[in-house]
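Fold this complex.
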Amino acid sequence: METLDTALTEVVIPPPEPPRPPAAGPGDWLRRNLFRSRVDAVVTVVAGVVVGYIAYRLVRFVFVTGRWEIIRVNLKLFMVGRYPSDELWRIVVGLAAIALYGGLLAGLVAHRQAVAGTAPPPVSLGRRIAGLAQRLWPLLVGVLLLLLLSSTAGPWLTALLVVAAAVLGRIVGWYLPRRSILWLVLAGIVGAIVLVWFLARPIGWDQWGGMMLNLFMAIAGIALCFPLGVLLALGRRSKLPLIRAVSVGYIELFRGVPLYVLLFMSFLALGFFLPTWAESPGLVVRAIVVFTLFTAAYVAEIVRGGLQSLPRGQTEAAQSLGLSPVKTMFLIILPQALRNVIPALVGQFISLFKDTVLAGAAMGIFEVLNVAEATTAQEEFRGEGLIAETFSFVMLLFWVGCITMSRESQRLERKLGVGLR
Amino acid sequence: MTTSGRPPLWRDVRVLSWAFQLVVVGLVVAIVLWLLDNFRANSERINTPTGFAFLDQPSDFPIPGSDFRQSQPVRDALVEGLQNTLRLAVTGIVLATVLGVLIGIARLAQNFIVRNASRVYVEFVRNVPLLAILILLYIAVVLNVFPRADQSWELGPLAVLNVRGASVFWFEGGNVKFAIAVVATVLAAWVIARWRRGVADRTGRPARRGLWALTGGAVVFVVAWAVLGLGGTAPEIDGRRVTGGITMTPEYFAALAALVLYTASHIAEIVRGSIQAVPRGQGEAADSLALSGFQRTWFVVLPQAMRIAVPPIGNQYLNLTKNTSLAAVIGFPEITKITELTVANRSPAVPSYALLLAIYLVLSLVISFFVNLVNRRLAIVER
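Structure:
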């Protein structure tokens, strides 16, 4: 007991430090963020030197040592491959149509939100543009860079037209009847098919190239794989053992093998599996088929996650209303499940978009990474070791696309409140 | 008519469901059989073998950076390729985990520079294609920036780096002996850790398991090294050649670096998310127990974050393993490249690729088996 007493009396309680005033100003910021302790100061100095050196090398590469002439000369090749020059207006029209459609959708959705009372509070036009710029700054930087690299007026006019079409669509969309969203979606699907046909008029997609081809393959892959993916997800959750076995087998098979090998196989060995009378499909079609089959397995797992995230009560409620199993699934369960997994689906699309470069390496399709390699072998640039320049440019293009999509999907995730309900 | 008894066959749910299943399975089997039949017909038409007899034929091509001979059968070439794939995958997984966890923690650091540098890194690398990083690293960095052989960069006796590859210090004398030494070390560390935990449970004194296990393991390792007669070999520059040590070819080095950098950025994002998912109260509780910053991260937050992070990190391991196939593009002789070579040297394409797919499938299944094992061990045991 005695030791405890002395121990207790010997404890000296320091007088409480007076609370530090919430100081502001650069000195305080530095202390909190860079020089919290001695160790922190050392870390700051070391990291500062390393980061500073890398930044210095990067800036030097971009502004001093990099020879960007190769991009300037080949800009069209990078973006649209060998699309004939006097048919480029088709791509302009296509881009404007897409922008118009996006504007229409946005306007309709905004109107519906306004009527439903879920719209964000109105802000002035300047604020709205500033907000958009903050949201989409990587995209804006990318587009601006492309415009600055271009040597003709075409891209500038295209950009203006696209913006005008988007704004027009946004205004017109507000006045569309509110119930027309289903029609608009249907029109989008039909429009997409018409657009592909329209763009493939001068040269078929087997001769397409550049970034346009990467986008086309990614969009076609994700759109086509969707029905198969949903079916597989339902199959994997089915109570019927044989259906489940077939679905699980498919999903695990395609998730267990590399995409590169599948692409290479379809390049080399597809002919063996077609009937002897059949003509082998073109390379782009083969690539899209492989992307579709491969991505379907991943989409199936994502959709399965969405199905599992729904509480049982939803099914039971639907059943107690007397809905048939098919109606329960397609009217009650699937819409909610799919809405919950939109961010994950966007993630899958990003990953597919990045994977489209594999088609170039495996099958020699003239997609943008192949363009980057091919341009360094052009007569005027051969042997100059410009691969760092062309590859950096392509990586920047991908970065702009992927980061924009992933930021937008994070925003959507916050808006949908996934995981909060 | 009675209302009791079985419904007619065409309205019996059990009969219907089995009929539906049989139709679907029949359809799948029919498609597969049709494809196989086409394959057989096509093979007969152009006179290619369909079996696996090609495995015993001589391979007719050399493998750079290995003592593989042209007269050896295709089977041996594939084994060599598989070894290279595994080497790349295992080393990559270990390094990517270390780097990824570090960057993931750095993403949440209080230091402004560290936090934002790691953020820029992650946001950039995650959003560009791996293949672009790989080719860029290989051509623009390894082949263009690394010094010529007579101007190698040296790091003491530990490493030598030049355009012909990177050499590092390595052990000498028998893989089996080395494996024995490693196993003995791990066993010793494990036993010591258990013993220290027992002591801590009995006496209440701090266990310091990590310290004890590390020291004990190191001692055992050194003793085993000496007893088994293992030696070391350091890379040395001998004119234009580098002798000694273990040499990584430029292709291996570039592939490893690209895979590690790319996967680490994904792992970092997972680690960051998992750390943020640990309830804030856990960190505050650690603070109120007066744990140091290191103790707080290492003993309280990270173990709980790891429980959340294991399944997605396991997915990244699978991705990394599958992505080793991209090393074929820069000519690293892993299994995909070897298969390409064998097919180019008169091996039949379809059986070769079927075998390749099967190998990747088995690799994936093995990895997911281990990940599941770890996951089950880390899961909260609930009553």
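Chain B touches chain A through 54 residues (CB under 8 Å).
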